[in-house]
Design brief:
The protein is built from twelve helices and 14 strands. The protein is of the alpha/beta class and 355 residues long.
């Protein structure tokens, strides 16, 4: 039976992960995601087959996830901005090894150690792979407590289907905010699709090798092109976005996560004052929902990108439109939170400039 629970965003991820069949978690404390690590410690202790490890570092945690994934376990780790930076080599290894895993980034202000305030400054890091080499990660950006629950389950499903790391990208505000969420029944881990590539003992079968050190350049090249083909498949199958009041709009605000919630309030306020504006909210940041954006671009030629950063997603908007629209930008980096009134003011400025 589906349950509706009032929980913080960090706790929602933990509960949804356990119900999605996550049975291994390794992490290291950092604000503002500590509640997720805390939750996983308690949740794994209640399971007969769950493992929780507070690792000695972020680097250790991601490498423990690699080992658990090799053994066929649904595995997850989490951190916040500078901690995710430390995990990047391991995430690159996961991509090269073609291993599924879920990584949660509860973003904080930066660069450097920054602060513990909400920010969206990690977009480039998440959507461009983040580590070395030619690889990508699926990046999911929830916009509500319910969507956190839904996308966490999808993250594990995508990871297994495509044998790839998947990142859930939220910010500190969403991680701390309390909202209700309906959770589906737990999956039967014994009934999950088989993983014939796992390292689970070679009794009665040929041995298997999973490695990323490919000293023959042609073998390495073949791996890269195989990954590219898989990324192209992902781009066709999992683009996701929400459009709000865009059917008759002259201007679309584009924002994700917490910024999109603020922008939706601004759109409603602007509509009350006669401005025809809508909201386009990417849910998959990679693959970026280019197809949906181009669909509304058939009648909307003006866009205002709002980010809690100096401007990162705005580049994907421009790349997707390929000059077929005028793109404006407004952002605040480092942790300050804009208000709907503030964004309404930016919308008004765009309209006054004759878009």
């Amino acid at each position: 039976m589906n349950e509706k629970l009032l929980m913080s965003g960090n706790h929602i991820i933990g509960e949804a992960a356990v119900r999605a069949g996550c049975r291994f978690y390794a992490g290291y404390p950092i604000t503002p995601q500590n509640e997720l690590t805390e939750y996983m410690a308690s949740a794994m202790a209640r399971l007969n087959d769950g493992t929780f490890i507070q690792a000695e570092s972020e680097i250790a945690a991601i490498n423990m996830v690699i080992g658990a994934s090799m053994a066929g376990c649904r595995a997850m780790t989490s951190s916040s901005s500078p901690g995710i930076s430390l995990k990047q080599e391991g995430i690159s290894f996961l991509a090269a090894l073609e291993l599924p895993a879920v990584i949660v980034n509860c973003m904080r202000g930066g660069p450097g150690l920054g602060n513990i305030a909400p920010s969206q400054g990690d977009y480039f890091q998440a959507t461009r792979g983040g580590g070395h080499g030619d690889y990508r990660t699926i990046v999911l950006a929830p916009g509500s407590g319910q969507e956190i629950a839904d996308l966490t389950r999808k993250a594990f499903e995508y990871a297994d289907k495509y044998r790839t790391p998947v990142m859930i990208l939220q910010d500190g505000m969403m991680g701390q905010m309390m909202e209700p969420a309906i959770f589906p029944d737990p999956v039967d881990t014994a009934g999950l699709p088989p993983k014939p590539w796992t390292l689970d003992g070679a009794d009665g079968r040929p041995s298997r090798i999973i490695k990323s050190l490919l000293l023959d350049p042609l073998v390495e090249e073949a791996l890269c092109w195989r990954l590219v083909a898989r990324y192209e498949e992902m781009a066709k199958e999992i683009q996701a976005a929400e459009s709000f009041m865009t059917s008759d709009a002259d201007l679309a605000v584009i924002a994700y996560g917490t910024a999109a919630r603020i922008a939706k309030g601004a759109v409603k306020r602007a509509r009350q004052k006669g401005m025809k504006v809508g909201l386009f909210r990417p849910i998959t940041l990679w693959p970026f929902p280019k197809d949906s954006l181009l669909e509304i671009n058939k009648h909307i030629k003006n866009f205002l990108v709002f980010e809690m950063s100096t401007g990162q997603m705005v580049e994907d908007v421009r790349l997707s439109l390929e000059g077929a629209g005028k793109v404006h930008f407004y952002g605040r980096p480092g942790g300050p939170i804009s208000t709907p009134q503030e964004i309404e003011g930016e919308i008004k400025k765009v309209f006054e400039s004759k878009v």
